[in-house]
Amino acid sequence: MTYNTGDIFLIDSDSTESRIVKFLMSSDTVGHWLVGKLYEKISKKVAPSWLIRKQFYYHVGMILNEKETIEQQAKVEKQPISRLNGKKHVIIRRIGLSDNQKTAITVLALNDFGKGYDILLILGKTLNWLTGVPLFTLLLNWPTKELCPTRVAYWHYKITKELWGRLNYNFVQTDDIYYWAKSHPELYTIVEEV
Fold this sequence. Notes:
Elements lengths: L7 E4 L4 H10 L4 H14 L15 E5 L4 E5 L3 E5 L8 E6 L4 H13 L7 H13 L3 H5 L8 H13 L13 H10 L4 E6 L1
Antiparallel strand pairs: 1-2, 1-5, 2-3, 3-4, 5-6
Helix pairs in contact: 3-6
């Protein structure tokens, strides 16, 4: 399989951390989740996706070149592309990304190399989830620090102006990238889904 610079990968894990992250991403707020569960109990049907969405992946990164990925772990770091082997993952490609755009997105990503993980943004997103007040997500974050989905969303936003269906790249979650790409085949193609 040939991956291109700028391709986005989403990856899954069975760790406790990833199960917690996927649970929190399944609904925009605890209110959505509760209403969705109530709907399922009463109707005996699966809740609509605007209430509860199935989560397939928990982590996001980007293909840097034919041998490496770049992603937000404890800090932004490179990993060998072989780390995807044997793991449940999907590769998403922006259709028509020019060579100039690929160069620009690479420069953005490499400029973030070594930058840290935004623990404060986790608090903001959690308070947003608990209260339904999105202002927490916008106000509670450290400049230059991001979570893995917001980091990749930022890189792509700066080059393509893509917001993955959200009002701001700070709101983007892993599942937003997956579902947006799947519902916009004119903009994105799924290169690989294992």
